[in-house]
Design goal:
The complex is a heterodimer. Chain A is built from 30 helices and 23 strands. Chain A folds into 4 domains: 2-224 and 357-391, P-loop containing nucleotide triphosphate hydrolases (Rossmann fold, 3-Layer(aba) Sandwich); 231-349, SecA, preprotein cross-linking domain (Pre-protein croslinking domain of SecA, Alpha-Beta Complex), CATH 3.90.1440; 401-572, Rossmann fold (3-Layer(aba) Sandwich); 603-783, Helical scaffold and wing domains of SecA, CATH 1.10.3060.10. The termini of chain A are far apart. In chain A, 42% of the residues are buried. By secondary structure, chain A is an alpha/beta fold. By secondary structure, chain B is mainly beta. Chain B has a single domain (3-148), classed as Immunoglobulin-like (Sandwich). Chain B is 12% helix and 36% strand. Chain B has helices at 3-8, 38-49, and strands at 27-28, 59-69, 72-81, 87-88, 91-97, 103-110, 116-117, 121-129, 145-148. In chain B, the strands form 3 sheets. Chain B has a 4-stranded mixed sheet, covered by helices on one side. In chain B, strands 6-5-9 form a 3-stranded antiparallel sheet, with no helix packed on it. Chain B has a two-stranded antiparallel sheet with strand order 4-7. In chain B, strand 5 (91-97) and strand 6 form a beta hairpin. The chains are: A alpha/beta, B mainly beta. Chains A and B meet through helix 11, helix 12, helix 13, helix 29 and helix 30 of A and helix 1 and helix 2 of B.
Chain lengths: 792, 153
C-alpha cells in the first residue's frame, strides 16, 4: 500500500505530499476514535462546528473529521476507507477532481468531504449520474452521515415543492445535475420568496464529473412555457380589434410607433371578456395580448413592415427593404399579426429560463468531482473551471491487460472478427462485455451472435434500476452482454465464482469514441480492485469517428493501407492513425465547447443581474415594495428626459416628451411653452411632479396584500421581458458567424451587441412597469370618481 | 381597503340575482379538475360573455366549439344554471342538430364526474361524440346546436 502511495507522490506535487501526510494523520487517529462510543462520535459534529465558528480554517479539522467518518463507516456499513479513498477525499475537500478507477469506491469517498463541508451548515450537494444512483447512494452512504448526526435528503424529479424544500434543507442532498439545475431555474420564476426550494450553492461533489462538465457541456437546461394555448385568444382579440376605430377606441403615437386604448376601447374589451378592469393586476396577460393585437391592427402594416408568403408572415428589413429570412416578431406580436391576417397561428417559442449545466455549477462557492476518466481533459478542467485533476492510485495494482486495437477496413470484417473473438473467449467460460455506441449497433451484432448460436443479452433496459441490475450480472461465468458505453454507469461489475481463475472479464469495444475518456470508462469496467481482466477495441475505418475526420486526408490514408485476407489494416501505422484521428476530433469538440462558453458568458452575467433584481423584490417587505416601484419610475423618467435632451438639442420637440410623460405622470397639464423656459431643468421639474405620486402611494404602505400584488405585478413584467430577451439573445447567438467578421473579434462584437440588448431590456422593464402601473392608477382614479358620483 | 383588492372583488365574481328584465347573467366557473392556462380562461370568458341571458330557473346547454379528432367530434359547451341553488347531473342524453333541426348525433353521458353547478353559474365541459354515435353522414362546421333530449313522461 505505502509503496503505491509513494510511487504516486513521486510525481512531485507539493499538494500530494501534504495529502500524504494528512492520510497518515487520519491513520494515527484511528485508535483514538475506535474508543469513542456511538454517541461521542455523533457529538463530534458539534465540537467541529464550534471550532469552525471560532474562526478556524476547515483545513485544521480535515484529518480529525475524516477519522470520525471512517470510524462511523466501519460501524454502520462495515466498510473502512482505504488510504487511497482518504486521499481522494482530501482532493475533493479542497475543491479538486479526483481521478479514481471504477470499483475503487468513489461513493464511499464522497462521505468524507460531504461530512466536513456540511459542518458549515449551508448544505452540500452530491450530484450523481442518474436518479437511481442518487437514491442508492442516499440510502447506503446516508446511513453513515445520519449516524454522525447529519440530515440527508434526496432530490428527484417526481417530488413536489415542499418535499424538495425539505430535501434541500438537509445537511447533504443527493440528486442529479439536471434536477438541481432545473430547481435553480424554477426558483428564479417564483413570485414569493417562500416558494423557492434551494437555499444557496455552497459546496458540490459531482460524480462522473467529466460526463457532466464536458460531455453535457453543450446541452442547456431550458424551461419553456406552454406554447400553443394562446392561439384562440389571438384570434378573438384580432376579431375585436377589427371593430375598433381610431380616436374613438384607440389612439396612435406616431413618434413612438405605439398605440393605446382610449377609455372607451378599454371598456369594450372589459365588456367582451366580462372583466372589471383591463389594467388590473390579475389581467396583465390579457392586457398584453390585446396590446399586441392593437399594435398588429394599428401600427404594423402589410407590405411595409411585413409581407405574407405562402401563408406565413415574413419581416421586412426597414433599412434594406429585404425580407429577413427565418426571423419572427417577438413577444406574441408575430402571432397577433398572423391572427389579424387570418393565417394559421405559429407556435410561440417561449423560453422562460435557461442555464447550461456548467454555468449552474459555476454558482457554487466551491465544487469538486470524481471520475475514472479525467486526465485526458485535465487542461480543460483547469482552464475553464479552475479544477485541478489529481490521479489517485488504485488500492490494488491494476493487472488488467489492454490489448492493442484491431483496425479493419470495413464493418463486415470488423463484426466477423468480433463474433469470432466472442466465440473463442466464451468457450473458455469467461464473461464478455461488448461495448457499443448505439442500441442499433448492439442489435446488428446480436443478429450475428444468434447466427453462431452464442447466448447473449442486450442491455436495453427501460429503467435505470433494471439497467444497474442487469449490468451488475455481466461478470458471471459464460455471460455475454451487449451494452452501450454509457449503460449502467456507476454500477460495478462483480466477478462470479471461478471467473478470476479463468482470467476475469473481457471487454470488447466496437468503436473508438470521440473522446478517449469514454474509452477509458469502458476499459475501467474490467480489472476492478486488482481483478484480472482484459480489453480490446475492434474497430473499422467505416466507424462514425472517421466520418468526422477530414475527407481528403481520410481518402489519402485509405489509398495507402495494406490489409490481410481478413481485412485487418496492417499498415501504415494503424495505431498512430487512429490516435491522431481521435485527438483531432476531440480537439474539434473542445473548440466548439470553448466557443459556446464564450457566447454564454454574457447571458450568464445578465441572468445574475436579473435574478438579483428579482431577489431584491422577493425579499422586500410588502410595505417597502412601493419604494422599489418608485425607483423604477424615477429611472424611467430620467431615461426619458436624458433621451430628450440628447436627441433634441438642435430642434427642441417638447411635445414628444410631454406625450411620453403623460403616460407616467398622473396630471401633468404642461404646455410646450412651459418646457421652453426651463431647458436643462426638465428632469428636476418632472421629478417634482412625481412627488405627487409618492404621497398617493403612502396610503398603501400598511396594506400587505396590496404590497404583495404589486410585487407579483413587478415580477411578472421583469419575467416576460427577460423571456423575450432570452429569445433575442438566442437569435443573436445564432447570427454570429465566425468567418463573417473579417479582422474583428467576433466575441467582442457579440458582447457589445449583447450589452446594448441588455440595456434595452432594462429600459423596457422600467418603462413597462411605470406605464402599466400608471394606467392602473388612472383607471382606479376614474373608477373612484365615478363611484363617488353614483353615491351622491 | 386596497386599491387592487377593490377591483378584484367587484361584481363579476358575485352571482347576480334576476334583474329587472327577469333575466339572469350566469357566473363562469371552472371544474376543479380542469387545468387550463390563463389564455384559455380568457377564451372561455369571451365565449361565456356572448351567451344570451337566461330566464330564471332554467338549466341550459350552449355549445361554443367543435373540434374534430379523426372521425370523432368533441363539443365544448357551457352547462348553465339559472336556478338560485346548485344542481348536479347524472345520466343525460345529448343531441346535436343542424341548422334545420335535423338530428345529427345522439349520445348518453354520465355527468356525475362533473359534480355540482352552483346557483346562477355556468361551467364549460367537453363532450366526445364518437363515429359510432353519428346518425348523419357528416357534421357541419357551422350552424350545429347541442341540446338536452327531453324524456317523454
Amino acid at each position: 500500500m505505502l509503496s503505491s502511495m509513494k510511487k504516486f507522490f513521486k510525481e512531485g506535487s507539493k499538494d500530494l505530499k501534504r495529502i500524504y501526510k494528512l492520510v497518515e494523520e487520519v491513520n494515527r487517529l484511528e485508535g483514538k476514535y475506535e474508543k469513542y462510543s456511538d454517541l461521542e462520535l455523533s457529538e463530534m459534529k458539534n465540537r467541529f462546528k464550534s471550532i469552525l465558528d471560532a474562526g478556524d480554517n476547515i483545513l485544521d479539522i480535515q484529518a480529525e473529521a475524516f477519522a470520525v467518518v471512517r470510524e462511523a463507516s466501519k460501524r454502520v456499513l462495515n466498510l473502512r476507507h482505504h488510504d487511497v479513498q482518504l486521499a481522494g477525499g482530501f482532493v475533493l475537500s479542497e475543491g479538486g477532481i479526483a481521478q479514481m478507477n471504477t470499483g475503487e469506491g468513489k461513493t464511499l469517498v464522497s462521505t468524507l468531504p460531504s461530512y466536513l463541508h456540511a459542518l458549515f451548515g449551508n448544505g452540500v450537494h452530491i450530484i450523481t449520474a442518474n436518479e437511481y444512483l442518487a437514491k442508492r447512494d442516499k440510502e447506503s452512504m446516508g446511513q453513515i452521515l445520519e449516524f454522525l448526526g447529519l440530515t440527508v435528503g434526496l432530490n428527484i424529479s417526481q417530488m413536489g415543492p415542499s418535499a424538495k424544500r425539505e430535501a434541500y434543507a438537509a445537511d447533504i442532498t443527493y440528486g442529479t445535475a439536471t434536477e438541481f439545475g432545473f430547481d435553480y431555474l424554477r426558483d428564479n420564476l417564483v413570485y414569493r420568496r417562500e416558494d423557492k426550494v434551494q437555499r444557496g450553492h455552497r459546496f458540490a461533489i459531482v460524480d462522473e464529473v467529466d460526463s457532466i462538465l464536458i460531455d453535457e457541456a453543450r446541452t442547456p437546461l431550458i424551461i419553456a412555457g406552454r406554447a400553443n394555448d394562446g392561439t384562440e385568444l389571438y384570434q378573438i382579440t384580432a376579431q375585436i380589434m377589427k371593430t375598433f376605430i381610431e380616436k374613438d377606441d384607440y389612439e396612435i403615437s406616431v413618434e413612438s410607433r405605439s398605440a393605446f386604448f382610449t377609455d372607451q376601447g378599454a371598456s369594450k374589451i372589459e365588456e367582451a371578456f366580462g372583466i372589471d378592469n383591463l389594467y388590473g393586476m390579475e389581467h396583465q396577460e390579457l392586457l398584453h395580448n390585446v396590446t399586441q393585437a392593437l399594435k398588429a391592427r394599428a401600427i404594423m402594416k402589410l407590405d411595409v413592415d411585413y409581407i405574407v408568403i405562402d401563408g406565413k408572415i415574413a419581416i421586412i428589413d426597414k433599412f434594406t427593404g429585404r425580407v429577413m429570412e427565418g426571423r419572427s416578431f417577438s413577444d406574441g406580436l408575430h402571432q397577433a399579426i398572423e391572427a389579424k391576417e387570418g393565417l394559421e397561428i405559429s407556435e410561440e417559442n417561449e423560453t422562460q429560463a435557461m442555464i447550461s449545466v456548467q454555468n449552474y455549477f459555476r454558482l457554487y462557492h466551491s465544487m469538486s468531482g470524481m471520475t475514472g476518466s479525467a486526465i485526458p481533459s485535465k487542461s480543460e478542467f483547469q482552464e475553464i473551471y479552475q479544477l485541478p485533476v489529481i490521479e489517485i492510485p488504485t488500492n490494488e495494482p491494476i493487472i488488467r491487460v489492454d490489448e492493442v486495437d484491431l483496425l479493419y477496413k470495413d464493418e463486415t470484417s470488423k463484426i466477423n472478427k468480433i463474433v469470432t473473438e466472442v466465440k473463442r473467449i466464451h468457450d473458455e467460460g469467461r464473461p464478455i462485455l461488448i461495448g457499443t455506441t448505439s442500441i442499433e449497433q448492439s442489435e446488428k451484432i446480436s443478429v450475428q451472435l444468434d447466427n453462431r448460436k452464442i447466448k447473449h443479452q442486450i442491455l436495453n433496459a427501460k429503467t435505470e434500476e433494471d439497467e444497474a441490475e442487469i449490468i451488475a450480472n455481466a461478470g458471471q461465468k459464460k455471460q455475454v452482454m451487449l451494452a452501450t458505453n454509457m449503460a449502467g454507469r456507476g454500477t460495478d461489475i462483480l466477478l462470479g465464482n471461478d471467473v478470476k481463475e479463468l482470467g476475469g472479464l473481457h471487454i470488447i469495444g466496437t468503436e473508438r469514441h470521440e473522446s478517449r475518456r469514454i474509452d477509458m470508462q469502458l476499459r475501467g469496467r474490467s480489472g476492478r480492485q486488482g481483478d484480472p481482466g482484459s480489453t480490446q477495441f475492434i474497430i473499422s475505418l467505416e466507424d462514425d469517428l472517421f466520418h468526422y475526420y477530414d475527407e481528403e486526408e481520410m481518402g489519402r490514408y485509405i489509398k495507402k493501407i495494406k490489409t490481410d485476407e481478413n481485412g485487418v489494416v496492417l499498415g501504415p501505422a494503424p495505431d498512430k492513425f487512429v490516435k491522431m484521428v481521435q485527438e483531432t476530433v476531440e480537439q474539434m469538440h473542445q473548440s466548439s465547447r470553448y466557443h459556446l462558453l464564450k457566447l454564454e458568458h454574457a447571458l450568464n452575467e445578465q441572468s445574475k443581474i436579473i435574478y438579483a433584481m428579482r431577489d431584491r423584490i422577493l425579499d422586500m417587505k410588502p410595505e417597502r415594495i412601493s419604494a422599489i416601484l418608485l425607483e423604477y419610475i424615477v429611472k424611467y423618467i430620467t431615461r426619458l428626459t436624458v433621451k430628450y435632451d440628447r436627441e433634441h438639442i438642435a430642434e427642441p420637440d417638447s411635445s414628444a416628451l410631454i406625450e411620453e410623460l403623460t403616460f407616467v405622470l398622473l396630471s401633468l397639464g404642461w404646455q410646450e411653452s412651459d418646457l421652453k423656459d426651463i431647458e436643462g431643468q426638465i428632469e428636476g421639474r418632472v421629478l417634482e411632479a412625481l412627488g405627487e405620486w409618492e404621497s398617493r402611494l403612502v396610503i398603501f404602505q400598511d396594506d400587505a396584500e396590496w404590497g404583495n400584488q404589486l410585487r407579483a405585478f413587478m415580477l411578472q413584467h421583469i419575467d416576460t421581458n427577460w423571456m423575450n430577451h432570452l429569445d433575442e439573445m438566442n437569435s443573436l447567438k445564432e447570427g454570429i458567424g465566425l468567418s463573417e467578421y473579417g479582422q474583428q473579434d467576433p466575441y467582442a462584437l457579440f458582447e457589445k451587441a449583447a450589452l446594448s440588448q441588455f440595456n434595452l431590456l432594462l429600459s423596457k422593464i422600467e418603462a413597462e412597469i411605470s406605464i402599466r402601473f400608471m394606467e392602473y392608477m388612472k383607471s382606479n382614479q376614474q373608477d373612484a370618481a365615478s363611484l363617488e358620483g353614483e353615491e351622491r | 381597503m386596497s386599491l387592487f383588492g377593490k377591483r378584484d372583488n367587484a361584481a363579476s365574481d358575485v352571482p347576480k340575482l334576476a334583474d329587472q328584465n327577469d333575466t339572469v347573467h350566469t357566473v363562469l366557473m371552472f371544474h376543479k379538475g380542469w387545468d387550463i392556462s390563463k389564455q384559455e380562461e380568457y377564451v372561455y370568458k369571451f365565449h361565456h360573455q356572448r351567451l344570451p341571458a337566461l330566464k330564471p330557473n332554467q338549466i341550459s346547454i350552449s355549445g361554443i366549439k367543435l373540434t374534430r379528432v379523426e372521425d370523432d367530434v368533441i363539443i365544448v359547451a357551457f352547462l348553465r344554471n339559472s336556478i338560485d341553488k346548485a344542481v348536479s347531473f347524472d345520466i343525460v342524453d345529448l343531441l346535436l342538430v343542424d341548422g334545420d333541426g335535423k338530428l345529427l348525433v345522439k349520445k348518453t353521458f354520465d355527468l356525475t364526474e362533473l359534480g355540482e353547478i352552483p346557483a346562477l353559474s355556468s361551467m364549460p365541459w367537453r363532450f366526445l361524440f364518437e363515429e359510432g354515435d353519428m346518425l348523419a353522414e357528416s357534421i357541419p362546421d357551422e350552424g350545429w346546436k347541442i341540446a338536452f333530449e327531453m324524456k317523454r313522461k
